[in-house]
Amino acid sequence: MNRKKLIIMSALMLLAFIIVACQPETEIVEVTRVVTETIVEEGESVEVTRIVIEEVEVTRIVEVEVPVETESEEEETAGEMEPTAGGSLRIAMGTEPLAFDPPNYLATTDLIVTKLIFDGLVKFDNELNVVPALGTDWEQIDDTTWRFNLREDVQFSDGSDFNAEDVKASFERGIQMRRGQAFIGFIESVDIIDDFTVDINLANPFGPFLQHMATPVAVVTSSDHLAESSDEDLQLNPIGTGPYMLEEFTPQQSTHLVRNDLYWGDEPYYLDEVTFFVIPEEATRFAALQAGDVDVIENPPPHEAANIEAAPTMQLITSPGTRDVRLAFQVGNDPVDDPLLRKAIAHAIDSETLVELVVEGLARNANTGWLPPEVFTASPPVGLEYDPELAKELLAEAGYADGLTLELRTPEGRYLRDREIAEAIQGQLAEVGIDVELLTMEWGAYLDSLSAHEGQMFIIGWGVSTGDPAVVSRQNLASDSAFNFAGYFNPDLDALLDEAEQTSDQDRRREIYQQMTELILLEDTIMRPIYWKLNLFASDSKVHNFLPTPLEQIDLSETWIEQG
Q1: How many whole angstroms separate alpha carbon 484 and alpha carbon 480?
Q2: Would you say 180 and 474 are in contact if contact means Cβ atoms under 8 Å apart?
Q3: In Å, how far are 5, 11, 13, 62 from 17, measured between CA atoms?
Q4: Which of 83, 110, 161, 400 has CB 3.0 to 4.6 Å from 395, enough for a Cys bridge?
């Protein structure tokens, strides 16, 4: 059959298909019409409007949708979904980064941004395995010495070359920083073997060494940059080897990153630019997403979750997280320096109701311990049950049978429904005779007040950046920790922290963390856990492969956005 005949036959078949697929159909329908008439009454013309319902025979053409897809259409559809390089991703967060110097970071938002700017010797993959980064391989020489071979032909974003000097300078500075100490304080020194080999010497054996080295705090910056810059300069002028670099930071507004064209890695990192906007109110963030002003938002309003999932233009992104959110006490401040009063308050809080009604089920009730089960599972469970009658008895025993007034501080927009959680706790405590004065604070000022140990009660959350309980326990509980916002001092617990970090016996480590959990919740009651969060984002449907990690970072290595 020649090509001309084939074309003619194809056209006839298509015509026949159209005739079959489009068929007339007659039916009787009711039609409502508005009719205006002019009538004469008592010598005057008057307009009268009437609603008329009539039966009308209607003939219409009904199109029958027949799924027909040619090979070329399939190829075109598949082609449309191929990742597109370029473009700018706009992300709205509840809080802004406060520092771009990882060993001096102030909150997780800082690390979310700096993780895109810096690299460490190793990193976590999305299954929380430790994999190479600036270190190509490593070995443990003895109990306190680890040797790393370094990647060659790597440059910092300022064009300087990466080598062993940068590793030594970065880590030996990091262990001098109070916040850096919580992650890499076990390092005693770094020896340079050659330009691309280092030995990291530990003060003592440290079980979760590699997990800590994979955190976004244990990163490398240029030794020349460190030598030339003050700590204040480093806060706002990061130089790293990561896929992006800081272009502009406008406080209280936005953080703008651009592609680092010198990046050494083989991950695609399709996006040219990433901008983080700070929008504390969840409703305002959601409105910005709906209006197309941003592409991704964190913590959308829980009551909108079903609507987001059903909308063709948006998508809900959830994944397990490793952060707890809790009510905590300034244990050195009157009157909450009394553990009996703290225990009374803890038993007056109904966390199950808070999770179901305030967070609307988009979190997990933290009723078996303070650490998320992905990090440590208390066995037997350790919890402070909701028991308002017991709370009243304990209040009377503590000398507050007639009640008292306390202050509760909270941020807004940092954690899912943080302010609303505080308001609900205010209502629950009122039921047992405790009047609560709420103080909602801007994030930076809030952290300053916690560091100064001001107030009596506060809402705080803590993420686990290592997948191991060691660092989160030391940050929150060690007497000398810069992150011990509760002002908790207990030498016995400090000794337990040291033992848990130095032993490689996993059964013994579990025993120690069980003992610590019972001590801080049941005996000293320095906090009342509320929920373990989920990573929760919403995005425009044109955003693809946006991946929140279990450790509360954002993996943009394969994220792309449809253009046009």
Answers
A1: 8
A2: no
A3: 18, 10, 6, 14
A4: 400
**CATH architecture type of domain 88-317:** 3-Layer(aba) Sandwich (3.40)
Tell me: the pLDDT tens digits for 352-389?
A: 999 999 999 999 999 999 999 888 999 999 999 999 99
- The candidate with the shortest Cα–Cα distance to 196, out of 254, 269, 255, 135, is 135
Q: Which residue has the tokens 């959110």?
A: 325
Distance CA 372, CA 378 (A): 10
Amino acid, single-letter form, for residue 522: L
CA-to-CA dists, residue 70 to 22, 78, 494, 533, angstroms? 20, 13, 69, 46
What whole-number distance in Å separates Cα of residue 251 and Cα of residue 51? 61
Please report the pLDDT score of residue 66 as a whole number.
38
Report residue 37: phi and psi, to 5°. -125, 155
Scored b (16 or more CB within 10 A) or e, 161-199 reads ebbbbbbbbbbebbbebebbbbbbbbbeebeeeeebebe
Of 230, 121, 223, 122, give the one whose Cα is nearest residue 169. 223
- Token digits of residue 222: 């240029």
Mean pLDDT rounded to a whole number for the chain: 88
On the question of pLDDT at 321 being above 90, the answer is no
User: How many angstroms separate the CA atoms of 230 and 134, rounded?
Assistant: 25
- Nearest CA to 436 out of 446, 444, 445, 428 is that of 428
Six-digit token string for 501: 């970090």
Our measurement of the distance from residue 79's CA atom to the centroid of its chain's CA atoms, rounded to an integer in Å, reads 32
Structure tokens at 283: 């409703």
**Closest by Cα among 298, 255, 300, 249 to 276:** 255
Does the structural domain 319-535 have CATH classification 3.30.470.30?
no
Map out the domains of the chain as residue ranges. Answer: 3-63, 88-317, 319-535
Distance CA(363)–CA(367), nearest Å, equals 12
191-233 pLDDT, tens digit per residue, is 999 999 999 999 999 989 999 999 999 999 999 999 999 999 9
> For residue 424, what are its two tokens?
């609900």
Give, in order, the Cα–Cα distances in Å from 193 to each of 136, 154, 183, 186, 223. 15, 18, 24, 20, 17
Give mean pLDDT, residues 404-431. 97
Query: What average pLDDT does range 172-199 have in this prediction?
Result: 95
Tell me if 382 sits within 8 A of 369, measured CB to CB: yes
Q: pLDDT tens across 83-121, in order?
A: 999 999 999 999 999 999 999 998 899 999 999 999 999
Report the SS3 class of residue 206: coil
**pLDDT tier at 80, thresholds 50, 70, 90:** low
Residue 359 CA: distances (Å) to CA of 34, 325, 426: 50, 12, 16
